[in-house]
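Regression report. Comparing outputs from two consecutive submissions.

Submission 1:
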Amino acid sequence: MSEFETVIGLEVHVELLTKTKLFCGCSAAFGAEQNTQICPVCLALPGGALPLLNKSAVEYTIKAALALNCKVAPQIAFDRKNYFYADLPKGFQISQFFYPMGTDGFVELHINGETKNIGIRQLHLEEDTGKLSHIGGIISSSHSRVDFNRAGVPLMEIVSAPDLRSAEEARLFLQKLRTILCYLGVSDCKMEEGSMRCDANISLRPAGRSELGNKTELKNMNSFRSVFRGIEYEVERQRAVLLSGGSVIPETRHWDEAKGLTRAMRSKFVSADYRCFPDPNVPPYPAAQKWIEEIKNTIPELPDARYRRFIEEYSLPAYDAEVLTASKELADFYDSVLSCYNEPKAVSNWIMSELLGLLNEAGVEIGESKIKPQPLGKLLQMVGEHKISGKMAKIVFAEMFATGADPALIIEKNGLCQISDEDTLSQIIGTVLANNPKSVEDYRSGKKKALSFLMGQIMQETKGQANPQMVNALLQNKLSS
């Protein structure tokens, strides 16, 4: 047994897919020229208009809270979180300190064939800060630049309980959380664009103990790979400190992706340092139960429900169901193909092996695929009806992926129709047997390898278009007569 137990909690910040910012009408779109999506409200200029709450942002946050099995707060209230940093124009952040939108939820993980619930301590809505660019690197920068386009964008913070026990569990939790939020349509969760950001609180304690050890907060992890590598490194660093008799210093550390290590940034704040108090410019609103129920009714079938349905309704293996429900687009694609060709396992095999293989090779998402569900269902129907062989279907599939053409047109253009007429096949088999008397004699004297040779000759004669199952049955029947 390991001498230490790893304890990890994640703080995940997710930008919401609203058209405008949380308290003003500035665009929240990503990628605009620096400092062009700003106004007196999000810059906190003197004499600016008072903040006006974005209703869509609140609805998205409530929807996420419900999907994550949280209790929704009876009122919507905002507080001022006071601290001073260059990316915070007001000198405070409008957040939800006292009444977070959701509390006491959980996310269900499937780990090594077992189910584990990871607690959600709270989920709250706040405004995002500006973005700093450190010239020369965050640790030794010569100067920094700030872009306030992001300041005021609706930001949802999701704080997990310290239930994660490894870097791999943290990665799986983050991926599952991203999947749920994408299913809901409340965020695009693009880590590379900063719309999903993750900080990790990491500590070690002697195995078997319940009290927590000193923790460090790890920042700058902008991919699932970074989350895994950063946490693994920090766990090993803390283990080495403890084994040498030292103490872990509570601090915020920076993950250096290029060098694969963490560096100290600053000592840890405690909540009292923020001097939070209710924001006088944003009055509290009651969260009417009828409104919450209306929001709840807009929640689509979520990944866990879909995962169970795919297993129960379609008799899919758990692995297939997990892969297919990893994104809403992929699960929708699968369901759509089944509406055209109702063979769940066959469709799953084609999507998981052929389609995902080509998508990964091309570096594109399912939504960008030129192959659409109905044409794929049509192709698989032809395979099921033995109009083309599986080998031919893969040729057709590759051209469909490249061009988006209809499978029937590809088959006709390339002369790929399978020969399944018994009289035609019987004539071809008779000709091949007549031309290969030695192989016929070998087979009848017990040399079964001769059958493969004869099959090959028949397939060559038909340019690979003969139905292999029919050929095998007819050939053996003729050889035994």
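Submission 2:
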Amino acid sequence: MKDILKNQAINSTLTFFAPSFQMVDPEPDGGPFNFKLKETFRMMEPCKNLGGGRVRLTYYNPDAKSVSVVGGEDRAFSGVHPMTKDETGYWTVEVQVTPGIHVHRYLVDGALVLHDQMPLVYSAGEPANAFECVDEDCGWYLLQDVPHGDLRMEYYRSSHTGRWKVCWVYCPAGYDDHPEKDYPVLYLQHGAGEDETGWIDMGKMNYILDNQIAAGETKEMLVVMNYGFSLREDETPALRSPGFTKELLEDCIPMIESKYRVRTDRESRAMAGLSMGSAQSQNVVLNNLDKFAYLGVIIGGIGNAPIGVQAEALNDPAELGKKLKVFYSSNGDHEAGCMKSHEAMEKLVSEGLVCGRHDIFPGYHDLDVCRRSLRAFLPLLFR
């Protein structure tokens, strides 16, 4: 467990939050820039994994009258957890949680605030703190001693907005060493409260894929992660971003296919996304079956996702099953729409969608479920 807690995949966030940095004294001998950082900011360990799923959280505010931790949609960490203050002004509480990412905030004298020493994430479009509880079964998304792919930042101009956009591209290990090889591509989208870095930062996509490729479980592929919002100044802001499909098909994909050694047939293109990205993926793939053969709907609804899916292809599951190689969907068992999605997929399969599959994982509408979904989805691609 100690080795797991030291793994770079767990600590690859802002340097300030890394345990090794918190041990550093910036100027041990004093000097003009010694502002007592260690005493002022690092006297406490804001989050400590005690083992067995027990985690101790600490918050410093000597003037507060009451402090509590407010958990997110987490069956083991929801609700309000009152903290206890000691004589030095530190508030602590121990909580029992399940392995995975745990989003939370702090309630200080009735005001909901963020902890300035805990990593920040976005949850449902709002900033929040988060910590990760690990167990012995988390090696599949950790940094392991295997060949590693590259993450590359690429730019293209949006034909919808006229502005430049950035996307992240994962290239498998050995991409530059084998110029004779070409690869299939997965276009992977984030959720509404995130951006194109979400699958890398909290999702650990690159570690999951590195480990699976090394184990022979998954085909080598490129993964392209785009920012899912595309709005002109004259458009009404909405989750349903009409320009995204245009950008992807007319700008991003041509850029990728001109710059990288990728296959351009439909059976070498896949698209998947979480939450909002799952609806975008359905809209793109189901309306462009001449361009894609694989679809992943992660913690989303089938055909009735929050931002809406308009696709005639869903009305003829048998014909759709002839065109798609994989139609994968997943939810957390505590998501409100979990069983509705499961039943929708069962209906499609019963009507001829032979490539359909729906998985249910422990959890809510969160990135921990997304990681597990990606782990299950990737081995299905490009077979």
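Expected: both submissions complete independently.
Actual: both completed, but the second showed a warning that disappeared on reload.
Relevant detail on submission 2: The domain at 2-137 is CATH 2.60.40.10 (Immunoglobulin-like).
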